[in-house]
């Protein structure tokens, strides 16, 4: 099979000419629920390693942009950040399937676009929260040639699943193991797809390793595993990293107030993770059965398999009960493994990628080519298919000869969250679906904006909470994210010459000015601005005297110090449960050379200059 690689600066080719010479590939996406990287769950999936990791590329710097299933899936299926989907929670009024529909996404998302490109589309498993036995036929999920969706309130009941086939009446699978039922349905859809001539997209979304959820009153217990896996991992313990139940509190806001976990809770949490690993064994078997069927059908060489999850997971890190919803890497750094034609085998890619990049990547594959740059426009696609400029994500460099160059690679991921956080398990949250985000059963004030930035000489996580508390972690030196460089207790323990107070050769205060300005752009960005945020701060100039700025290192040029010091600072005026822009302070930066914003003249900028407190 011949593939066409198009990099930045190359002439654009029409889809019509591309597809005439290329065989459009099949695309399969396996989407688990709450799978971790930092507790090494992938190490306990030998079949996944054999068939995908050893035969494909593992993207080691892949992130979700919001650590909660429904909004993360909305981003994955639209290529848009949560602040643009406005699906920011798992239930109404700010999230869930009804919110997805009311925002108009049911008419304008990935399967609809793929069908416009001539694909058959299939989906089995979990789609969204609040897609339930009462509303499944009120506004059926559009765009699917065949579908079989798990329905609430049974979605997370491993031995009491209810599915709706093509919008039909719910069918109970009580007594059967839900991930195994999902695998059987995947096989059926795969057989259907292989019997037809059209290329296909197949989404497979088992619930493992999500907690087993029992409604009314809501209880989140460890996931149920198949009996055939009960003997596994009995000696496993969660890695005792420096962020595991630390002696000194870490983080800010409610995280900093958590009591240290006692031995009883620790023992429970270890077993909780063992249950998660056992539940993932059914997914591991699913992967092998899928690959074997593709090989038997002779289509493995024309099929891409993407393996990922909706968000990560923490257990005992930062003294937290099992859960997600935080901006720490435990929650946002997630698996992405890709196998397919032209994809390097057994390789670990260092490209910085995010869930908002998946829909654009699928569209590029569906157009008949695998492109390497993120400035490709689907020039002649049907009108139902968005152009890249309409999406917030870019195209993931999949092929060996399309790895990003210095001029096209991305270093940033925008992180965001609104609402409360809730611990799971015996010692975590207990309550009702309807009140989880309106009471103090969860952790309040968990609304924040975050920025992950990874480049040559820096690996950073920066956060501004709705309480206007700030965090900055040098993840290269502090992978557990326990030393907040904006904490007085941490700063007081450092000497003025400490390497931790200089990043990429510049003082911490100067770096913070740049990070905050970049976050200001990303927190409300759309389209091209999300992919190229530095362009909003430094519009391209013809003058050779003004350096081009594409990265943090470029922006750290000393001539820009006053410019960045004068930018408005990211802040919140109020903690909200959803995306309310009027509560999120300044929204815009002042571009370089366009008349600089002077923070000293704005009495609403509560944080002032970083140099005042760093």
Automatic annotation (TrEMBL):
Coiled-coil boundaries: none
UniProt keyword list: Glycoprotein, Hydrolase, Signal
Signal peptide as annotated in the record: 1-18
Protein name: Arylsulfatase
Gene3D superfamilies to which the protein is assigned, alphabetical: Alkaline Phosphatase, subunit A
EC numbers for this chain: 3.1.6.1
Family, similarity comment: Belongs to the sulfatase family.
Protein origin, superkingdom: Eukaryota
Record-annotated Sulfatase N-terminal domain positions: 25-368
Keyword Phosphoprotein in record: no
Family annotation (InterPro entries): Alkaline_phosphatase_core_sf, Arylsulfatase, Sulfatase_CS, Sulfatase_N
Record field: catalytic activity: an aryl sulfate + H2O = a phenol + sulfate + H(+)
Keyword Transport attached: no
């Amino acid at each position: 099979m011949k593939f066409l690689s198009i990099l930045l600066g190359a002439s654009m080719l029409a889809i019509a000419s591309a597809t005439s010479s290329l065989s459009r590939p099949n695309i399969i996406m396996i989407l688990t629920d709450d799978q971790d990287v930092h507790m090494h769950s992938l190490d306990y999936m030998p079949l996944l390693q054999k068939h995908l990791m050893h035969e494909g590329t593992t993207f080691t710097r892949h992130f979700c942009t919001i650590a909660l299933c429904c909004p993360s899936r909305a981003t994955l299926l639209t290529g848009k950040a949560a602040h643009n989907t406005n699906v920011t929670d798992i239930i109404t009024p700010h999230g869930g399937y009804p919110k997805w529909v009311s925002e108009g996404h049911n008419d304008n998302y990935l399967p609809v676009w793929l069908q416009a490109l001539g694909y058959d589309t299939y989906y089995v498993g979990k789609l969204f929260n609040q897609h339930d036995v009462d509303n499944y036929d009120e506004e059926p999920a559009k765009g699917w040639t065949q579908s079989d969706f798990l329905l609430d309130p049974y979605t997370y009941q491993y031995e009491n699943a209810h599915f709706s086939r093509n919008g039909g009446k719910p069918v109970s699978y009580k007594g059967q193991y839900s991930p195994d039922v999902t695998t059987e349905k995947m096989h059926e859809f795969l057989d259907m797809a292989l019997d037809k001539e059209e290329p296909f997209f197949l989404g497979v979304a088992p619930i493992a390793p999500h907690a087993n959820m029992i409604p009314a009153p809501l209880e989140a217990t460890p996931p149920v595993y198949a009996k055939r896996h009960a003997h596994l991992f009995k000696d496993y313990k969660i890695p005792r990293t420096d962020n595991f139940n630390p002696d000194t509190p870490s983080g800010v806001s409610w995280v900093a107030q958590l009591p240290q976990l006692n031995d009883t809770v620790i023992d429970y949490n270890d077993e909780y993770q063992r249950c998660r690993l056992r539940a993932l064994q059914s997914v591991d078997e699913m992967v092998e059965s899928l690959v074997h069927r593709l090989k038997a059908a002779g289509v493995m060489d024309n099929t891409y398999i993407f393996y990922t999850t909706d968000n990560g997971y923490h257990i005992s890190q930062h003294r937290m009960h099992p859960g997600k919803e935080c901006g720490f890497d435990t929650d946002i750094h997630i698996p992405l493994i890709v196998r397919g034609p032209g994809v390097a085998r057994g390789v670990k890619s260092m490209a910085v990628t995010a869930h908002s990049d998946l829909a654009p990547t699928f569209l590029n594959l569906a157009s008949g080519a695998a492109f390497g740059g993120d400035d490709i426009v689907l020039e002649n696609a049907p009108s139902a298919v968005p152009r890249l400029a309409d999406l917030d994500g870019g195209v993931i460099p999949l092929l060996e000869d399309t790895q990003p160059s210095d001029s096209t690679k991305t270093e940033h991921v925008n992180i965001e969250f609104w609402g409360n956080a809730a611990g799971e398990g015996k010692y975590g949250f207990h309550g009702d679906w309807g009140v989880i985000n309106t009471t103090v059963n969860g952790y309040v004030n968990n609304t924040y904006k975050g920025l992950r930035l990874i480049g040559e000489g820096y690996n950073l996580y920066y956060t501004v909470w709705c309480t206007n508390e700030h965090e900055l972690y040098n993840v290269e030196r502090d992978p557990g994210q326990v030393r907040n460089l904006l904490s007085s207790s941490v700063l007081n323990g450092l000497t003025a010459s400490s390497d931790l107070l200089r990043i990429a050769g510049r003082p911490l205060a100067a770096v913070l000015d740049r990070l905050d300005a970049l976050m200001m752009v990303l927190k409300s960005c759309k389209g091209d601005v999300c992919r190229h945020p530095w362009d909003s701060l430094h519009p391209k100039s013809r003058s050779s005297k003004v350096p081009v700025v594409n990265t943090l290192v470029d922006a750290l040029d000393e001539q820009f110090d006053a410019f960045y010091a004068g930018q408005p600072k990211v802040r919140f005026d109020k903690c909200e449960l959803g995306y309310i822009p009027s509560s999120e302070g300044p929204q815009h930066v002042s571009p370089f050379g366009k008349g600089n914003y002077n923070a000293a003249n704005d009495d609403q900028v509560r944080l002032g200059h970083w140099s005042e407190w760093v």
